[in-house]
Amino acid sequence: MLQEITKKNNPKNPFEGREGLVYARVSSKRQETEGTGLQSQEGRCIKELEAIGVPYIKTYPDSYSGGGDYMNRPEMREMLAYIDANPHKKFLVIFDDLKRFARDTVFHFKLRAAFRVRDVALKCLNYDFDDGPEGVFTETVFAAQGQLEREQNKRQVIQKQKSRLELGYWAFSSKKPYKMEKDPIQGKILKPQYPEAEWLKEALEGFAFGRFVTKVDGCKFLVEKGYWKKRSPEKYTDEFTKLLRDVLFAGYIEKPEWGVERREGHHKPLIDLDTYELIQKRLKNGWEGKRIRKDLSEDFPLRGLSMCFHCSHPLTGAWSRGRSQKYAYYFCQNKKCLMYQKVIRRKDIEDCFAILLKKQVLKDKVGLIIKEVFDSVWKEESSRIEDLHLASIKRKVEYEEKLSKFKNLAVDTKSETVRRTYEDEIENLAYKIDEIKMNLAEKVDLSVPYRTALDIAIALLKNPYKAWQKIDLKEQHGLFYFIFDEKLPYDLKEGYRTAKTPTAVKLFEEFLAISTPYVDRTGIEPVASSMPWMRSTK
Fold first, then answer.
1. Whole-number mean pLDDT of the chain?
2. With a threshold of 0.85, does the pTM exceed it?
3. Closest among 508, 527, 509 to 453, alpha carbons compared
4. Which of 72, 53, 54, 55 has its CA nearest to residue 63?
5. Structure letter (DSSP) for residue 292
6. Which of 95, 157, 273, 343 could serve as a FRET partner for 222 with CA atoms 20 to 30 Å apart?
7. pLDDT for residue 33 is more than 60
8. So where are the chain's domains?
9. What does the DSSP assignment read for 53-81?
10. 315 φ, ψ (degrees, to nearest 5)
11. 178-183 and 187-192 as β-strands: parallel, antiparallel, unpaired?
């Protein structure tokens, strides 16, 4: 009898046998770094776990906004992955407020279901879960209220940001190379940070006026300057494209999706609007980004360069066996096209292409501007390479001095932990020194006569057909996308049908419209140094 009374007075712990996981969340990184919200949530939850006799295992602190799919929250994903990796254990997930769980009605119950299928118990410090009809109704109301508050907050934030944008001020986080600084009169405003701002200015102007022929050339410049540091230049082309398209750097503000049309901003621009528009023109008309096929075939050099005039699908090439010999054909593979599998003799299409290529010539005036910018940039490129060489030697000396210092410290220290730290630094410095030595050993050949290089560039642009005959297949594809803006449409009856000005001709003719001071100041990258097929035409 006494035993039964004791059981009634001390009911069994519903969470017995479970392990406690704490989930804490704030709405932004700033709240995470500047406040104590995560720590206070964690402290309250751990204290509650101790009170109910559930062992505490781990905390998952999120700083992701509460709206939307819960799987977008990195720590929530991590917690679910941990639970899935330990199917033999039972867990209790605890959090301090229902709003920390999910501030979206749909995803609130999706998350509830995700825990239910994993047999995870939930506990909220400010709310008692109840799976009865009344409890589900109440929980729905609370979840909907949280969603309403979130959406109202979002609306207020957007209204304030939009108002700020309409006044000509950037209303979001800093955008490199700018930094948000507080002005006593204007409030928070973007201020350019040097030398990064000067580097980006030079890169944007360099692309606009042709100093950097391709995006990769601009990326290479920014990597060499230290604007970007972690990856090779080719990996930054998408980021560089975004910089080229961003009118913020021309001193303007816009956000069309919010109805904020372009207006002059209060921040200091890096380039003027004319330069920005010239960049957009180059991006629209440029030849970059054209992919060269990996499955190139010497038998069908125009495969991947020609497309069907009727459906714009690429033409492919194949051999067909006759009674006594094989025949080479190009044809369209689009089953919906009226030209589907109607063959084009290889000789016909290649002869037609040769005629088209022979027509691609530059005007005499364009040849003059090529010589002008070539002369200027030849000197600039030689000077730049020499500066890089001297800078590498200086860095090597600095690293060697540091290496010697760390070696002495490693010998003198008595702490094994400190010694290992010094040894790691020694290994890192030794690697950097070896890398510089290898680069210094690879001497850049500047002995190619200026006149020969210039003659090659002008001869190629004046007679691309002659160059086409002397270079290999991969170089031919590179040359094609320098001359033409896109794949060429071919018609079975009329041959190649294109009235567009070739990209190479268009590029240099545009330079004639640019004022001479700009050309003198920036020039263009020596074509022979950046496009290998130009060096192959000797």
1. 75
2. no
3. 527
4. 72
5. P
6. 273
7. no
8. 2-149, 178-285, 306-361+467-500, 364-462+505-534
9. T--EEEEEEE-S-SSS-GGGSHHHHHHHH
10. -80, 140
11. antiparallel
178-285 and 2-149 share a CATH fold: no
What is the pLDDT at residue 67?
A: 53
| Cα dist from 126 to 46, 112, 113, 151, whole Å | 15, 17, 20, 22
Q: How far is CA 479 from the centre of its chain?
A: 27
What is the token pair recorded at 385?
């390479």
Q: Are 440 and 493 in contact (CB under 8 A)?
A: no
Q: Which two tokens stand for residue 123?
A: 């506990």
CATH class of 178-285: alpha beta
The H or E element spanning position 121 is strand 121-124
Cα(374)–Cα(524) distance, rounded to whole angstroms? 7
Helical H runs in 121-179? Answer: 133-166
Task: Report the CATH superfamily, name and number, of domain 2-149.
Answer: Resolvase, N-terminal catalytic domain (3.40.50.1390)
Angle between helix 273-285 and helix 196-208 axes, rounded to 10 deg: 50
Q: Which residues of 353-362 are buried (b: 16+ CB within 10 A; e: fewer)?
A: beebbeebeb
User: What string of H, E and C letters represents the secondary structure of 83-97?
Assistant: HHHCCCCEEEEEECC
515 contacts 436 by C-beta, under 8 angstroms: no
340-380: pLDDT as tens digits: 878 889 889 999 988 888 877 665 555 666 677 667 766 77
What is the three-class DSSP state of 161? helix
